[in-house]
């Protein structure tokens, strides 16, 4: 009896399996799916998306595939030239590695082998931003220049910049010696960087202005990146206390030369050699001076170092020889004997500081280079960040 019940249960079990098998079969009237019609598992996506408009030229193009690996990726510009890029290690992500062009249509195509063995394909295009205005920037000092310890870094734009913070974020200063400094906007077209104190002598400086693609506001964008590398020279500082009638030159903190001079007329603040720290802006072997208000034109002088756009120079003036070292009789310039003017001229670098004290008037804040006329707190308050 036990044996017969066992067999019976096995038969029931076998019958149940058969019934289940019958229930799992194709229902009459349902068509079989052709495996060739099943779409590939691999899914390819792109950023920017297909058909995107006004795409930033700085945003990387990225193509990704899920459940597969790329066998081919191509992004091309309107001329059919490829955009540089690279696949990651597992061949599931491609990323561009160069900026795009303004106002252009880019096309991408890609193929990937899916994990199911099927090939997935992808095509599409997008358009980049077309700026209303392209703004050009220049950078000073220029490459390979050797400059004095008060030389500022200056970025000038040919159009006003509305979003100053965006522009400033694109500016990087690298130095061979640690230097504390800051950017300050001197106008809506100019931003300067200067150290808190004079540069350490012999510092190497690299400036990178990654301005291409930066939106300055109002549809204005940066036209191009600009860079420069320059060097700070020896430490030389000129000090003039106008009542003393002496121009002193210091190298590395020690007086290295002194020259008798005649400065601007003491009695008239409009003719003073003004107080303040300025820099040597140009070195001109000869210059022509004109000031119709004071009755002279086409006056030629030698060994001229311009120290402001207000009209002040350090230069020879043998015509004023009788007053050099004795009286202040110039119209604001620092007059030297010719031999002394030549000696100083030969020693000077663009960016050397000239510190002037003792006058009734101060330098106005109208010169192209007025960076050192501002105290540090005022300077840092002009940053956009």
UniProtKB/TrEMBL annotation:
SUPFAM superfamilies: L,D-transpeptidase catalytic domain-like. Keywords: Acyltransferase, Cell shape, Cell wall biogenesis/degradation, Peptidoglycan synthesis, Signal, Transferase. Pathway: Cell wall biogenesis; peptidoglycan biosynthesis. InterPro entries: Big_10 (IPR041280), LD-transpeptidase (IPR050979), LD_TPept_cat_dom (IPR005490), Transpep_catalytic_dom (IPR038063). GO terms for cellular component: extracellular region. Residues 236-357 form the L,D-TPase catalytic domain. Residues 1-21 form the signal peptide. GO terms for molecular function: acyltransferase activity; peptidoglycan L,D-transpeptidase activity. It comes from the Bacteria. GO terms for biological process: cell wall organization; peptidoglycan-protein cross-linking; regulation of cell shape. The active site is at 315 (proton donor/acceptor), 333 (nucleophile). This is L,D-TPase catalytic domain-containing protein.
């Amino acid at each position: 009896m036990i044996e017969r019940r066992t067999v019976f249960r096995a038969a029931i079990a076998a019958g149940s399996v058969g019934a289940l098998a019958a229930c799992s079969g194709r229902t009459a009237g349902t068509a079989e799916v052709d495996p060739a019609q099943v779409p590939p598992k691999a899914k390819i996506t792109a950023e920017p998306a297909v058909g995107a408009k006004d795409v930033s030229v700085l945003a990387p193009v990225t193509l990704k595939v899920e459940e597969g690996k790329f066998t081919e990726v191509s992004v091309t510009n309107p001329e059919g030239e490829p955009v540089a890029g690279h696949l990651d290690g597992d061949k599931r992500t491609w990323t561009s590695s160069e900026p795009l062009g303004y106002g252009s249509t880019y096309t991408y195509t890609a193929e990937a082998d899916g994990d199911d063995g099927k090939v997935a394909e992808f095509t599409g295009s997008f358009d980049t931003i077309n700026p209303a205005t392209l703004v050009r920037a220049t950078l000073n000092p220029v490459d390979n220049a050797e400059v004095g310890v008060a030389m500022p870094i200056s970025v000038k734009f040919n159009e006003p910049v509305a979003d100053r913070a965006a522009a400033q974020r694109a500016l990087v200063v690298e130095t061979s010696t640690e230097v504390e400094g800051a950017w300050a906007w001197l106008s809506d077209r100019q931003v300067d960087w200067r150290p808190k104190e004079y540069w350490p002598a012999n510092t190497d400086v690299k400036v990178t202005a990654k301005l291409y693609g930066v939106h300055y506001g109002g549809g204005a964008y940066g036209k191009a990146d600009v860079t420069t590398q320059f060097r700070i020279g020896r430490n030389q500082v000129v000090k003039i206390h106008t009542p003393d009638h002496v121009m002193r030159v210091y190298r590395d903190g020690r007086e290295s030369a002194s020259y008798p001079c005649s400065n601007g007329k003491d009695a008239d603040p409009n003719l003073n050699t003004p107080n303040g720290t300025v820099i040597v802006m140009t070195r001109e072997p000869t210059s022509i001076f004109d000031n119709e208000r004071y009755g002279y034109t086409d006056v030629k002088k030698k060994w001229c170092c311009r120290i402001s756009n207000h009209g002040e120079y350090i230069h020879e003036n043998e015509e004023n020889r009788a007053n050099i070292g004795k009286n202040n009789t110039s119209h604001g310039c620092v007059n030297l004997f010719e031999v002394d003017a030549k000696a100083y001229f030969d020693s000077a670098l663009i960016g050397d500081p000239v510190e002037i004290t003792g006058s009734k008037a101060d330098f106005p804040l109208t010169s192209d280079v007025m960076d050192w006329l501002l105290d540090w707190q005022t300077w840092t308050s002009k940053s956009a960040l």
